[in-house]
Design a protein that fits this description.
Radius of gyration: 26 Å
Order of helices and strands: HHHEEHHHHEHEEEHHEHEEEHHEHHEEE
Oligomer: single chain
Structural class: alpha/beta
Shape: flat
Low-confidence stretches: 1-23, 131-137
Number of strands: 14
Helix content: 40-55%
C-alpha cells in the first residue's frame, strides 16, 4: 500500500498548522483537495502499475509546487499528469488529465487542480479571501455562556476527582485512572465519577491487601467490569463494589488469556492470507477470555472450510495484508465498516465469510483509502479548531467517523469570526444532539445549524 510516509511527503503542506493566505489554512487546503485525493490516490491503482507510478510522481511534484508557494518562492514544474478514476467508466479505463500550474497563489492552484478533474470547488468558494463578521443566531451562541457557568460551578468537584485519583495512584502504584470512558449520553456526569472514585477509595481501604493486584495497571471507569483486550481494568460505574472486588481479586487470571491473544490473532491472519487482525477502538466490550474464545471459534470454522477442500475465490489476491478484519461477539454484524475493515461475528460460517470478503474487496479498498486520508485531515482540523477557538478540550462520540468530524470542523471554522470569543474556554463534544451537561460540556451535533 502507498505508505502514509510517502503520502505525507507528497502532501506534507496540508499537515503543517500554518496559514497560506489571509484566510486559507492548511486544514482548509487539505479538505478542499480531499475529493481529488480519492480520485488519484495510488492505492486505488494497485492493478495498474503504470498509472500508479504516474500519479505518485505527479503528487510529489504538486507537493513541491505548493510548498514553494507557501514559502513565497517561485519554481517551475512541468505539466502534471494524473490518471483519474471515473465512476461511469469500465474497470481499468481512466481519464488522463494534464494540469499546467503557474500561479503564485495557493487558492488558485487548488481551484485549478479541482477544475481540471471536474471536481466541485464549492467548498473553497465559500472561504472568504478576507475576514468579515456574519451574524448567526445559533444554539451554540445561546448556550456557550451557560456551559461556561456550569463548568465553573463544578470546579470543586473536578478538584476532588483529581485528588482521589492521585491518592489511588500514590497509595497502590496504579499507573493511571481514566475517568472519561463513561459515555456522555449515559446520564453520568462528574458527580457520578466522583462518587465512583470515592467508593473505590473506600473499597481499597477495607481490602488493601488485594489492591496490590492493580499495581502498574490502568484503571478505567466505563460501561462494563472486566479486563479489556489491552489489559486495562474497567470498572462499571453502575456496578456494586462487590463486583469490583471480585474482579480485583482475580485480575491476574486474565493475564493468561491476554498472552494468548497475539497467538490466536497471528493464526487467524495466516489462514486468511496474512490479513491484519485488528480491534475497533470502540468495539463491544469483552473480556480477554471471551475474545480468545471468539478467535478460536472462527479459526476452527475456517480450518474446517479448508479441510473440506474449499478455498477462496480466484478473484481474491494471494496476499490480503493491506486489508483488515475485526472479530466481534457472536451476535455482531458481517459488514465492511466505514473505515474499510471487515467486521465479522465469531459465529459466521466460513463459507459466508470467504464469499463476503471476495465480493467486498473493492469497497474495502475505497474505504481504507478514504480513511487513511480522512484521519490525517481530521487531525489537522481538530488541532485548528481547538486552537482557533481556544477550547479547553474537543471530544467526539464513538459514532462520529473522521468524515463526519471533518464536516463539523469545517462548519465551525466557517463561523470562526462570530463564534471565536463565544466558544473560548468551553469543552466541546461532537455528537448527534444538542445539550449542556451538568459539568459544563457543550454537546452539539456534527451537522449543527
Amino acid at each position: 500500500m502507498y505508505s502514509w510516509l510517502k503520502f505525507k511527503q507528497a502532501f506534507r503542506i496540508v499537515c503543517v498548522p500554518r496559514v497560506f493566505s489571509r484566510c486559507l489554512s492548511s486544514a482548509e487546503v487539505s479538505t478542499a483537495l480531499r475529493p481529488f485525493y480519492f480520485n488519484v490516490h495510488p492505492d486505488l491503482f494497485g492493478k495498474y502499475p503504470e498509472q500508479r507510478k504516474t500519479n505518485e510522481y505527479s503528487l510529489q511534484q504538486l507537493s513541491a509546487f505548493l510548498e514553494a508557494q507557501q514559502s513565497k518562492r517561485s519554481i517551475t514544474i512541468p505539466p502534471l499528469s494524473f490518471y483519474v478514476r471515473q465512476k461511469d467508466m469500465p474497470e481499468g479505463n481512466f481519464r488522463l488529465v494534464k494540469i499546467s500550474l503557474n500561479s503564485n497563489d495557493v487558492r488558485d492552484t487548488v481551484v485549478k487542480v479541482l477544475n481540471a478533474c471536474d471536481i466541485s470547488t464549492s467548498y473553497i468558494d465559500k472561504i472568504p479571501r478576507s475576514t468579515h463578521k456574519t451574524e448567526y443566531r445559533e444554539w451554540i451562541i445561546e448556550n456557550s455562556a451557560v456551559a461556561k457557568e456550569k463548568y465553573e460551578s463544578t470546579n470543586a468537584t473536578r478538584k476532588q476527582v483529581e485528588s482521589l485519583i492521585e491518592r489511588l495512584c500514590k497509595n497502590y502504584g496504579i499507573k493511571e485512572v481514566r475517568k472519561y470512558e463513561v459515555k456522555y449520553d449515559s446520564g453520568w456526569n462528574i458527580s457520578h465519577i466522583r462518587g465512583a472514585l470515592q467508593s473505590l477509595v473506600s473499597l481499597s481501604t477495607q481490602h488493601s491487601h488485594h489492591m496490590d493486584n492493580l499495581k502498574d495497571r490502568t484503571i478505567a471507569l466505563g460501561q462494563f467490569t472486566g479486563v479489556s483486550l489491552d489489559g486495562d481494568v474497567f470498572l462499571s460505574i453502575i456496578d456494586v463494589r462487590n463486583e469490583w472486588l471480585s474482579l480485583i481479586k482475580k485480575v491476574s487470571q486474565e493475564d493468561a488469556a491476554l498472552s494468548m491473544i497475539p497467538i490466536y490473532e497471528k493464526t487467524l491472519s495466516s489462514i486468511l492470507r496474512n490479513i491484519h487482525v485488528r480491534r475497533r477502538k470502540f468495539m463491544p466490550k469483552v473480556s480477554a477470555t471471551q475474545y480468545c474464545n471468539h478467535l478460536r471459534q472462527l479459526i476452527t470454522s475456517i480450518g474446517d472450510f479448508y479441510g473440506k477442500g474449499k478455498k477462496f475465490s480466484d478473484l481474491v489476491p494471494e496476499c490480503l495484508e493491506k486489508y483488515e478484519i475485526v472479530v466481534e461477539p457472536e451476535a455482531g454484524p458481517l459488514m465492511v465498516s466505514p473505515t474499510g475493515q471487515f467486521i465479522t461475528p465469531s459465529s459466521c460460517p466460513a463459507d459466508e465469510l470467504m464469499a463476503f470478503i471476495a465480493n467486498h474487496l473493492d469497497e474495502a479498498t475505497l474505504l481504507l483509502t478514504e480513511y487513511s486520508i480522512n484521519k490525517h485531515v481530521e487531525r489537522a482540523l481538530y488541532d485548528e479548531v481547538k486552537q482557533r477557538f481556544e477550547l479547553l478540550d474537543l471530544r467526539k462520540d464513538d459514532s462520529i467517523t473522521p468524515a463526519l468530524m471533518i464536516l463539523c470542523c469545517q462548519r465551525l471554522l466557517t463561523r470562526k469570526a462570530h463564534l471565536n470569543t463565544l466558544l473560548r474556554g468551553n469543552i466541546l463534544y461532537i455528537t448527534h444532539y444538542y445539550s449542556v451537561l451538568n459539568e459544563g460540556t457543550l454537546c452539539i451535533p456534527w451537522n449543527f445549524k
